[in-house]
Amino acid sequence: xxxxxxxxxxxxxxxxxxxxxxxxxxxxxxxxxxxxxxxxxxxxxxxxxxxxxxxxxxxxxxxxxxxxxxxxxxxxxxxxxxxxxxxxxxxxxxxxxxxxxxxxxxxxxxxxxxxxxxxxxxxxxxxxxxxxxxxxxxxxxxxxxxxxxxxxxxxxxxxxxxxxxxxxxxxxxxxxxxxxxxxxxxxxxxxxxxxxxxxxxxxxxxxxxxxxxxxxxxxxxxxxxxxxxxxxxxxxxxx
Length: 239
Prior knowledge:
The chain is of the alpha/beta class. The chain is built from 6 helices and 12 strands.
């Protein structure tokens, strides 16, 4: 039987640990786990820890970790996804699926056709929300390393600061992905719901991005990263 698996945002080691309040509440009050139940924890270091619950209270949960082992191996292809900022569930979906597909970093991109504008406190809350989505996706899919969700940045800023062996911007009129040599690091730029305009595609190409296409059909902004990352992992990663 598969063990319940949780991310702990603190270094783990063998022995006794008191879990943070959020995980303690979820384990004790939501899942109603009990003393003696087995569980598995990971801290993003790449290692997993198995153990059992020693104490389950309303606000306090203690565990005994008895076994540590190397977690799921990350893809040899490190991918930084620049995802055009979109509304609500579409952005959540893109981040969740990108995490499941092995992305290393995600940066929400603000471009001309974005229908969402985030500032200051609201942007911080959304970033924390997206990071939690990535954590939950890792708990579900078995990844032992959580991808970094960066704060939203303007397109021009991301283009300047992003480096990779191969940098691609999705565009309907371009070469297929298979035409490129195998990279070790990859940056993928995907537009928002309205897509990138021609000037933004040109701007990306001036920054060293190659225009690439996934096929003859125009994909939605939340579908494009799923297809793009799947194809990239098939060509150069661990699929």
